[in-house]
Amino acid sequence: MVKTNVMEQPDMSAILATNLRAQMERRSLSMAQLSRKAGTNDTAVYDILKQRTRSPKLDTIAKLADALEVRVIDLLTSGDRSAAEQEILAIFERLSPQDQQRLLLTARAWKSTS
């Protein structure tokens, strides 16, 4: 099996650390609490936040994203999305496909009346 280096770009570690810290603060989670919730070792979150690991495993990032109820891409990109947009996306992704369609229809109808 070939290992892929997830964090090829040097600034990706800083982006991941910034996004992870913001999500933790938003949920009032400590490093230890997030590590337990994600099922990672005790130092995984610390090492990412302090940028001690330049190439965290995708599996670890996925576990952290799941524990924070966000997408992996939300942790790995520096986006211009507001906290509200991120929350809406996280909620949307947890909906069933049928509920996603209902919500889209409602949003489109609401937009057309405004």
From TrEMBL:
Any one Pfam family match given in the protein's UniProt record, by short name: HTH_26
GO molecular function terms listed in the Swiss-Prot or TrEMBL record: DNA binding
Gene3D superfamilies linked: lambda repressor-like DNA-binding domains
Alphabetical list of CDD domains matching this protein: HTH_XRE
InterPro entries according to UniProt: Cro/C1-type_HTH, Lambda_DNA-bd_dom_sf
Segment forming the signal sequence: none
Domain HTH cro/C1-type positions: 20-75
Identification of the protein by name: Helix-turn-helix domain-containing protein
